[in-house]
Hints:
This protein is of the alpha/beta class.
Amino acid sequence: MNFAYSTSEMGFEGIFPANYPHLRVLETQLRFLNAYHIPIFKLLNNNKTYKGNLLYNIGKGGFDKEYIAYLYKNHNNVVEILQNKFDKVYIYQDGEMGWWNQVDVKLQVWWYNQLQSSDGILVPNSTDIPFYKGLYPGKDIKVIRSVMTDEGLDKTKFKPKENRTIITGPLTREYNGFSQLILAHNLDMPIDIPPMGESRMPKDSWDMADNLGVNYLQYMSWIEWMYNLNRYKIGYMLSAATASGSFALNCAYLGIPCIGDKRADTQRILFPDLAIDVFDNQKALELTLKLQNDLDFYQEVSTKSKSIFSKEFTKEKMIQVLNEAT
């Protein structure tokens, strides 16, 4: 399947370049697809038609998000509008499956209708497919594998290794952060939480950091994040909510063993020896101690993840998976 175009709330227009500082999963996928990105408001406010398919990332948010509130109020049929401009419109799952179930019910209905009107849905994990197949029988639902590229990275800037560990997010239900924190403390290493910045963190989680022995990193670009991530010895991705799984993906590229949720394709494929049920803290503890005490196992996991990454998370593999029948 080819996508000549893409759209989202991002203001960027064009093909995402290799040196784009925020080349996260979505931007990398669009780069690999050679999909020309057009801001959604520009599309909605012109009378042009385009030759080709469109990938549409609606983006997460409730009525408190100005962009979502505007779409709901002014474009109840936004997908149908886009279908009049493009050959087909596929909606890209932003965040975990069913994220929109937690917003205002009026907005839930709007979300459902957009997905219903679409020609298909793109999801990051094979485990997401049954969720949508039950709600939209007969809908074309495809996996668009999470990917990253090192085209814009200067490998001389990777920070040296330290005895540090990093968990995937704050102490909230979505991230299951408290359990991850307790597990990580068994390593007797400094513990960090990724760079989302104070303004993006729940205040209670941020304020309790010192008392709980965890350090919140300040916000940084994706490129800076990759340079910084190389410091860590072990990572945890035991989030209750499974989305793109970019944390495990980035860890695998650097050969950092990551204990994580097997629902995420990145975790299951890249770290088969460390992929567990999200709330199986007993198994997570066993693997934590094994990584700490069995250096051969640690090295095996690290080497395997880098090898699998180079074969299974390429541009060519992403496109191959996208074209497979579901």
